[in-house]
Amino acid sequence: MKxxxxxxxxxxxxxxRKRNDGYHDLETVFLAVPDGDELVxxxxxxxxxxxxxxxxxxxxxxLCMKAALALQAVTQTTKGAKIHLEKRVPFGAGLGxxxxxxxxxxxxxxxxxxxxxxxxxxxxxAASLGSDVPFFLDxxxxxxxxxxELLQPLDYAFPFHLVVAMxxxxxxxxxxxxxxxxxDQNRANLCKLVLSNDLARWRxxxxxxFEAPIMALYPEIMTLKQQILDFGAGYAAMSGSGAAxxxxxxxxxxxxxxxxxxxxNAVRVVGEH
Length: 273
Ligand code: C5P
What we know:
Blueprint: E1 2-4, E2 7-18, E3 24-33, E4 38-44, E5 47-51, H1 63-75, E6 80-86, H2 97-112, H3 119-129, H4 135-138, E7 142-145, E8 150-153, E9 161-166, H5 173-178, H6 190-196, H7 199-205, H8 211-217, H9 219-230, E10 235-238, E11 245-249, H10 252-263, E12 268-272
Parallel strand pairs: 5-6
Antiparallel strand pairs: 1-4, 2-3, 3-7, 4-6, 7-8, 9-11, 9-12, 10-11
The chain binds cytidine-5'-monophosphate.
């Protein structure tokens, strides 16, 4: 079974407050982007994993294996699987690549093993694997809140062209949260802002709270954002806790030009859509 795995960008991200459990309450609009990693699942006697990227572990510490092990434990199935991951989405990017892999392993194995796992059970397993994992179970536009695991579907069609690029920097999520000062006062309504599709308003009001503190630590992220804006993007922002930056373009030609220039300038272009 071959599975195309999406990744995500955040259209606005507010870190509201630190919680007693060590996580932060946040609000964001998640948008799934196609053409991320690829998974191949095959039924087998036991559970094993291979990966195209040799720098990633393939033992029980990999999020794909954690997902499969958790599903086995919860459903008490004796079935196994060979999991192969073609890794294309960079990590330390804020694109949710690892979370997406885990969610699609859960969904894929439910099908492969013919399990009748309820959506609630899948949600609980997904949320236990990471805050972003539940979003990828459905991967339609969603308003995310809580620690990111609580979701409300948003009736939204993204009408623009997207270019996603990765600078020469990797940000760990935990590091990003340490750099931030939460704020829950007078925050803009993210859903309304996104639904307006007004890129001038997005530029002025649609904020990712991680951007300023992370760009202060990694100036190359700010440079990349500025380059994307200079190529005619109507909006550009860092995704999640970084370091990837996405540009939103009104027309395909500007998007393609930006992609071409970025690709030739030592920046890894993750995708153009
Ligand atoms: O949930 P996930 O495993 O992706 O989180 C990684 C780390 O990011 C957590 O251990 C925590 O330090 C931080 N985090 C947070 N608040 C969130 C999500 C993540 O503080 N809402």
